[in-house]
Amino acid sequence: MSPEVALASVSGLALVLGLWLLREYQYGKKYRLPPQVPGVPLFGNSFQIPALQQGPWAKDLAAKYGEMFTCKFGANTWVFLNSSRVVNDLLERRAAIYASRPPFPMTQGIMSGESRIVLMPYNERWRMLRKIMHQILSSRQQDIFKPFQDLESKNLCWDYLQTPDRWWSANARYANSVIMSVVFGRRSMLDDPDVIELFETLELFLENQQPGVNIVDAFPILDKLPKVLQWWRPRGQRIFEQTVNVYKRELDRMEEKMANGTQRECFGTDFIKTEEVKNMTEVQKLFVFGTLMEAGSDTSRVTLGQIIAGAATYPDWVSRARAQLDEVCGNNAERLPQWEDREKLNYISAVVKEGFRWRPNIAEIGAPTMLTRDDEYEGYRFPAGTVFTWNAWAIALNPGEYEEPERFWPERFLNGQEENALKGHWAFGPGRRVCVGWKVGEMNVWIAIARLLYCFDFEEIPGKPIDTMSIPQLTKHTAPFDVKVTPRSVKHEELIRRDCAYAAEVRY
């Protein structure tokens, strides 16, 4: 490092320290925050939060500090909301001022070209993109998805039968293929390298989004340094280029098929003809497609794995699910569960909700939102710019919120609200930032798990127990845990061969 660069870096850090001291003084005079977790000067709690699996860490702090506590991650003040009561009070009832996002110069600025909707501030651009997402992912569009979910869940059963040791990869293919069929008019195959790379770029994003990982996200003022001094920028730029290439490959493939007349009608073919696209940059357009691919793939994939882990470790509920499935579909493998059976399969709907609640593996400490103006709540005074998040792991595993919370117990959701997929858990987020694709995700899981439970047994492997408290969030294209997958009976195997084999041969 040259003397000039060293001097500039020291000057930048000195500026950060000075601003931090001034801000701390002003905070103490004007505002009152929930109990603060002790940290170190300047960096706060950045070195305490684990890089991965932050849920247990945040759950322990909730047990110590109560319904709310405060952490400092660099210059950012985070308030963790540890009960459904305070989440409802702030992120739901006061959503108008609690729905923006803090700045993320690395993950949103460099890695996403300011174009990843999940990290956008609450503004007109976000609302425009949200509207686009809603047009394709809302509950009103469920009839568009059902034929693809039917086909892909049959392919899923076939993959489980043929390659049971690849069940986790089959889950990824299934979830991805549904959204790819709707958005791009094409299917995904098992261990498709394009799908693998999509999940790789998504996991790179999730890794870097964790608090404390990137110094510029902890101290956004560093983004004002000359780009040549931003030592983190080349790495972020490499991830951006890889991510954009993944998205662009799919768009190029679709446009090539459109040119030669072989492309199926789909959301993508309609979208690129709209007025909205004409006002977008190439990067913004690509991230619309990329967001759909990611959002439509990851939640479903992870939740299917969670329910399978629940079936292997708490098998008592599986027999009760099977009793209802057998009553509706036959106790001798007469036919697969269908969409038309949903009203009679309320236990399966409860299973899906429990899968979303049980171990909130995707967003263990929720997702950060930013307060846009000063606010008061129960004696606390919060400044604009404070970051809030719902402590998903702590809430889901709090016995004050759920009876026997560690147990996989679908009966907790047999309360007449089985079909209200958003009620009773926070898996899709609260307030105006609730996941726009929640209905698609819930439907993906419902039809797939109904058929998997009807046709297959899931058991722990001797000597390889499943630690459900440490199922990895990021898997790097490996199995998140070991499980034995076998058909329930010869009849169920015959049913899969009869009704599902063709699904693996369909091409478009």
From TrEMBL:
Its cofactor is heme. Residues 237-264 form a coiled coil. The chain crosses the membrane at residues 6-22. Keywords: Coiled coil, Heme, Iron, Membrane, Metal-binding, Monooxygenase, Oxidoreductase, Transmembrane, Transmembrane helix. The keyword Transmembrane applies. The keyword Transmembrane applies. One of its GO terms (molecular function) is oxidoreductase activity, acting on paired donors, with incorporation or reduction of molecular oxygen. Belongs to the cytochrome P450 family. This is Probable cytochrome P450. It comes from Cephalotrichum gorgonifer. The lineage of its organism: Eukaryota, Fungi, Dikarya, Ascomycota, Pezizomycotina.
